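Example for tutorial group B:
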């Protein structure tokens, strides 16, 4: 077996979205690949038979693809793609069109390297395209908007689509051009920036109804986006069988000072606007019932993100003449579990919904009757050792992406009638996206453990073990605590290159679901509300003590890291504990007072902690910088220079404060990166820099990793890997 190398990251392919055809016979999916030459990770579109009888057929290459959606008759597959204009669009569809091929000579394929945050550049913009899967041929371009298209949905007749797109006035277009020419940025709105979007402006996003054949469009003037969350959530258009179009907006008095997203519906001619929700929730992921009479959606509390999000259903027509909200009800509240991130409800029929929830450190499927709160957990064939990343259902078929810590991440399908079966005959694996990579390396072990923290509460963690490690007989290994972000999130069993690489290097990796994590119920999540540092540190350090007591981990060779809120927690751990040999805090906030107004999260800071000038002691208490003089642990800090969720100045403050005291520290800033690391080479550098930092401050690295005095890999060692299972 070969050693896993950082550059092997280029061989990883991850499926991100699935779309089942209306007849249930085919599954389209988007998979993100790596292009080392361009240093990009483009997303490509594939289609596979739902029974797994043939390998997936690739439809796109190089240029990006997202949001796959089948036409109602299943003959066309549409998607949002950033590609060169097709020939028809270059020369114009009509003889009277003045657009010429020369107008587009500067276009490139699929790159956003030079694109302005608000959509201005010579690069292609995201547009809606479709493949005719019956006739074949290349993709056909549907939209041609200067600012691009963000989202879309098919109309029930299959002849029109609805899209959401920015629509600047002439004056606003001039302002955007000035910005692109390095002119001043002038902002009057409260939500003045958004991570990954950039400096915001006054340009409004609207819904447009577009004829698929001609490209002609009509703006729906009353269907516009607004509010602090619109740059992140969008308008989310959904066109139902009854003819009405659902979308999200915030029409409160101060929309930029509110996390509300209300559900509206409108007729496709722009008339008869209806508001279906009560301005008390953040709603999203709209899905109409097949008959168009009801609409399902996810609802969360805009002033309490710890509270589990629920699947709700509304009657689409129940709006009083005075504008009162429609009747709606939750169908999952009794579970006390949150809707899984990146998922949406799906209708199995007019009376039944399918959704994914976070359930004790696992994303899994539930089925719920649409008229009451009586959900059932289904799909027992998934087990507790692999995670349901995303799912979609149609035509009696369920498509689901499953991530297994040993076998990798792939696309599966099964019949909806088999959702209760422990070993369903219809379950088929449709892809083998990483088989070549996985076949060359030894599989790590993975276990789910539980332990008591200092307050006597039970905490769960996912533990990844080195391939050759026998936990019953081998000596303890160096250990890495990897802390998830959020904190309103959770870790689940699944395959990730980082954990596989670290275990291949000889490390035990544990991922604790500390207090504040979702998927364990509202009380567990809300235990962290209004505080920072003490609870998470207890849960992380208690996990280290548990692994040491089991003989799996050597506490004298222990490392800790985390990204986003995991970075925040890492800094809190090293201010409150000396349990770890070294630490790496990534993309975090360390001084909540100074980050206020420089990040895009003023709403969150407000509802959980109050205003910093009103609650200065609270802001001091929740900031690790307050106790920075307690840090003795060697600390690496990294950030993206355009991260407006956790601004890079936060990393600078922490780094300088630690170095000023003579503690070993290193600062890494990734240029042109937001609150993520997008470019493959930078992702590889991130992994290498953290790993090297851990090696530098791990006194027993060579011994633990099985190297001789010259640093070469030894051939000795136990080749048995830990069996998968649940260890309570």
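The residue assignment follows.
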């Amino acid at each position: 077996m070969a050693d896993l190398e950082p550059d092997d990251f280029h061989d990883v392919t991850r499926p991100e979205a699935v779309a089942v055809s209306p007849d249930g016979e085919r599954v389209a999916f988007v998979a993100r690949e790596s292009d080392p030459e361009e240093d990009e990770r483009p997303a490509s579109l594939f289609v596979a038979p739902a029974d797994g009888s043939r390998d997936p057929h690739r439809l796109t290459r190089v240029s990006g693809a997202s949001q796959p959606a089948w036409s109602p008759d299943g003959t066309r597959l549409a998607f949002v793609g950033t590609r060169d204009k097709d020939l028809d669009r270059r020369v114009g569809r009509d003889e009277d069109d003045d657009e010429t091929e020369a107008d587009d000579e500067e276009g490139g394929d699929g790159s956003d390297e030079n694109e302005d945050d608000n959509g201005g550049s010579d690069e292609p913009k995201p547009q809606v395209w479709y493949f005719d899967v019956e006739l074949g041929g290349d993709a056909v371009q549907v939209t041609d908007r200067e600012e691009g298209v963000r989202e879309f949905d098919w109309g029930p007749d299959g002849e029109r689509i609805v899209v959401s797109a920015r629509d600047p006035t002439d004056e606003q277009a001039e302002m955007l051009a000035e910005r692109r020419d390095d002119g001043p940025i002038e902002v009057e709105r409260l939500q003045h920036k958004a991570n990954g979007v950039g400096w915001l402006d006054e340009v409004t996003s609207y819904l447009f109804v577009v004829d698929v054949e001609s490209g002609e469009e009509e703006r729906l003037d009353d269907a516009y986006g607004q509010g602090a969350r619109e740059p992140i959530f969008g308008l989310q258009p959904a066109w139902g069988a009854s003819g009405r179009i659902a979308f999200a907006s915030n029409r409160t008095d101060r929309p930029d000072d509110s996390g509300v997203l209300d559900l509206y519906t409108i007729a496709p001619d722009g008339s008869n606007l209806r508001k279906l929700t009560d301005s008390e929730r953040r709603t999203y992921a709209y899905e109409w019932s097949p008959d168009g009479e009801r609409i399902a959606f996810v609802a969360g509390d805009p002033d309490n993100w710890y509270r589990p999000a629920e699947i709700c259903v509304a009657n689409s027509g129940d709006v009083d003449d005075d504008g009162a909200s429609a009747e709606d009800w939750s169908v999952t509240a009794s579970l006390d579990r949150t809707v899984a991130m990146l998922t949406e409800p799906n209708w199995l029929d007019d009376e039944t919904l399918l959704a994914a929830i976070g359930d004790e450190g696992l994303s899994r499927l539930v089925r719920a009757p649409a008229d009451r709160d009586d959900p059932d957990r289904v799909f027992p064939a998934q087990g507790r050792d692999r995670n349901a990343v995303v799912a979609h259902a149609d035509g009696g078929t369920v498509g689901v992406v499953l991530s297994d810590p040993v076998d990798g991440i792939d696309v599966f399908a099964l019949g909806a009638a088999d959702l209760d079966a422990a070993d369903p005959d219809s379950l088929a694996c449709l892809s083998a996206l990483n088989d070549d990579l996985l076949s060359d390396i030894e599989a790590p072990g993975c276990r789910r453990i539980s332990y008591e923290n200092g307050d006597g509460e039970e905490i769960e963690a996912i533990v990844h073990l080195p391939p050759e490690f026998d936990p019953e007989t081998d000596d303890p290994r160096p250990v890495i605590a990897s802390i998830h972000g959020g904190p309103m999130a959770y870790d689940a069993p699944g395959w990730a290159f980082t954990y596989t690489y670290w275990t291949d290097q000889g490390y035990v990796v544990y991922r604790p679901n500390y207090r504040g994590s979702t998927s364990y119920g509202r009380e567990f999540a809300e235990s962290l509300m209004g505080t920072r540092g003490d609870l998470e540190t207890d849960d992380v350090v208690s996990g280290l003590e548990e692994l040491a007591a089991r003989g799996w981990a050597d506490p004298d060779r222990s490392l800790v890291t985390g990204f986003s809120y995991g970075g925040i927690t890492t800094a809190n751990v090293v201010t409150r504990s000396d349990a770890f040999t070294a630490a790496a805090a990534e993309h975090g906030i360390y001084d909540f007072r100074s980050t206020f107004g420089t990040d895009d999260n003023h709403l969150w800071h407000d509802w959980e902690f109050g205003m910093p000038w009103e609650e200065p002691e609270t802001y001091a208490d929740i900031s690790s910088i307050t106790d920075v003089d307690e840090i003795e642990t060697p600390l690496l800090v990294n950030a993206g220079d355009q991260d407006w969720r956790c601004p890079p100045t936060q990393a600078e403050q922490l780094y300088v404060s630690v170095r000023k005291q003579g503690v070993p520290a290193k600062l890494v800033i990734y240029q042109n990166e937001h609150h993520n690391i997008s470019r493959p080479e930078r992702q590889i550098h991130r992994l290498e820099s953290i790993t090297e930092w851990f090696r530098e401050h791990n006194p027993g690295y060579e011994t633990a990793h099985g190297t001789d005095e010259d640093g070469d890999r030894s051939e000795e060692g136990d080749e048995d890997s830990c069996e998968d299972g649940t260890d309570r």
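Residues 534-550 form the longest helix (17 residues). Compare this with the pattern of hydrophobic and polar residues in the output above.
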